[in-house]
């Protein structure tokens, strides 16, 4: 079974803005644009029955769509930086969705994620990058931000075991409901024309 994780997709216009940040840092292995995402919950390697249960429970989530933007860049690994990331604006709906996904995973017997949820988009993995080069790179790009975008679904993705960074495959799509519509619960096809 491939490694599974739940994520938010990065729309094309935001991904193109992120792609402009690539380069200028020795020791960086840049993530391909089509693999940019925001991980909500890493699940890992699980058996097929558990994967089916995860999909079934995720499919029952009913949450509203919401807006996000990407803002600022940083690095993980303070003494020895190991990755560069773009930050994500604070959105209560994203945190509520992530918390529900975490509860579902734990109810299914998956171990709790030991890391605090820090929404981000990984831009590069670092190998032998010098701390001063990383600091210089971050300083020159600290004012990065994208226009807000609407998040109207979340996805279950898989990755092959590798050093990280893809390729990723979308396994399942879970829509969020539209908060902008005045839908009253009836289907338009129920009414005669």
UniProtKB/TrEMBL annotation:
Catalytic reaction equation(s): a 3'-end 2',3'-cyclophospho-ribonucleotide-RNA + H2O = a 3'-end 2'-phospho-ribonucleotide-RNA + H(+)
A Pfam family hit: LigT_PEase
EC code: 3.1.4.58
Broadest EC class assigned to this enzyme: hydrolase
Motif (HXTX 1): 37-40
Catalytic-site annotation from UniProt: 37, 120
InterPro entries in alphabetical order: Cyclic_Pdiesterase, Phosphoesterase_HXTX, RNA_CPDase
Phosphoesterase HXTX domain residues: 9-83, 91-166
Keyword Hydrolase: yes
Location of the motif HXTX 2: 120-123
Protein keywords: Hydrolase
Entry annotated with the keyword Hydrolase: yes
Xref: SUPFAM superfamilies: LigT-like
Functional note: Hydrolyzes RNA 2',3'-cyclic phosphodiester to an RNA 2'-phosphomonoester.
NCBIfam families referenced in this protein's UniProt entry, alphabetically: 2_5_ligase
Recorded family membership: Belongs to the 2H phosphoesterase superfamily. ThpR family.
Entry protein name: RNA 2',3'-cyclic phosphodiesterase
Gene that specifies this protein: thpR
């Amino acid at each position: 079974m491939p490694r599974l994780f739940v994520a938010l997709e990065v729309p094309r216009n935001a991904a193109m803005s992120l792609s402009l940040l690539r380069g200028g840092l020795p020791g960086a292995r840049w993530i391909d644009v089509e693999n940019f995402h925001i991980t909500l919950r890493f699940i890992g390697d699980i058996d097929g029955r558990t994967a089916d249960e995860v999909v079934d429970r995720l499919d029952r989530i009913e949450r509203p769509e919401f807006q996000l933007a990407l803002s600022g860049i940083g690095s993980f690994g303070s003494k020895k930086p190991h990755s560069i990331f773009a930050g994500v604006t604070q959105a209560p709906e994203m945190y509520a969705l992530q918390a529900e996904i975490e509860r579902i995973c734990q109810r299914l017997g998956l171990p709790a994620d030991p890391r605090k949820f820090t929404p981000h988009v990984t831009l590069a993995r670092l190998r032998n990058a010098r701390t001063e080069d990383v600091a210089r790179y971050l300083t020159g790009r600290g004012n990065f931000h994208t226009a807000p975008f609407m998040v109207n679904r979340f996805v279950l993705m898989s990755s092959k075991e590798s050093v990280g960074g893809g390729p990723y495959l979308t396994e399942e799509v879970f829509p969020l409901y539209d908060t902008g519509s005045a839908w009253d619960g009836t289907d338009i096809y129920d009414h005669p024309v």
